[in-house]
Amino acid sequence: MSSFDNLLAGYRRFRNDGWKAQRDRWSDLAEGQSPDTLVIACSDSRVDPAQIFDVAPGTIFVVRNVANLVPPYERDASRHGVSAALEFAVTQLKVPEIIVLGHEFCGGCKAALTQAFAGKAPGEGGFVGHWVDMLDEARAAVVAHHGEGDDAQRVMEREAVKVSLANLRTFPFVTAAEEAGTLKLRGAWFGIREGQLQLLDESGGTFEPA
């Protein structure tokens, strides 16, 4: 059976079981969405926010990209996919919570740490390299204290969460909502091997088990 056939088989299970079991909810969702959380997560196939948080359809608005990164606020003519999703979630859906979800064994953070794609052309790793170079400042501090081994990667993964939170606060509509008390920003990290979620204590900069 091909990968696509597997997907279709999964769809049929969902249609016959999951969808039918929540038919009323799907009917409500057809009228519009009102998620209570924006989750900014990695594209990694092992880290599905809906599965990790075990939520019903329509509960979370999800943005996924390499290394769960939020770029800083920029006003130029480039395409800003993350910024557009963030703007929609905060100003239109008015989500009260944003979670930046990092994870163990993140390939994007490893690329940032090792600079494996630095100087590469687009199509040869250049897009990845330019995307994760927003972690360069954090990387320098990590390498200075931890080198470039596995321990350093775990630190880099958590630092990426902090960078994204800092960049979130460069968006005026995010800081306005946070200051008004209508928006809460949170950082988290998921350990794939142990299935453990850790939450960031911003006051101390540490991650503790949820």
Task: Explain what this protein looks like in three dimensions.
There is one protein chain. This protein is of the alpha/beta class and 210 residues long. The protein is 46% helix and 18% strand. The protein is built from 9 helices and 6 strands. Strands 2-1-3-4-5-6 form a 6-stranded mixed sheet, with helices on one face. Helix 5 crosses helix 8 and helix 7 packs antiparallel against helix 8. The longest helix is centred in the first third of the chain and has 19 residues. It is globular, with a radius of gyration of 18 Å. The protein starts with a helix and ends with a strand. The mean pLDDT is 96.
Distance between the termini: 39 Å
| Strand residue content | 15-25%
Uncertain stretches: none
Alpha carbon gyration radius: 18 Å
The total of helices stands at 9
Largest sheet: 6 strands, mixed
Q: Strands of the biggest beta sheet: in what spatial order?
A: 2-1-3-4-5-6
DSSP strand tally? 6
What topology does this entry show?
Elements: H1 3-21, H2 23-29, E1 37-42, H3 49-53, E2 60-65, H4 81-92, E3 97-103, H5 107-114, H6 126-132, H7 136-146, H8 150-168, H9 172-180, E4 184-191, E5 196-201, E6 206-209
Parallel strand pairs: 1-2, 1-3, 3-4
Antiparallel strand pairs: 4-5, 5-6
Helix pairs in contact: 5-8, 7-8
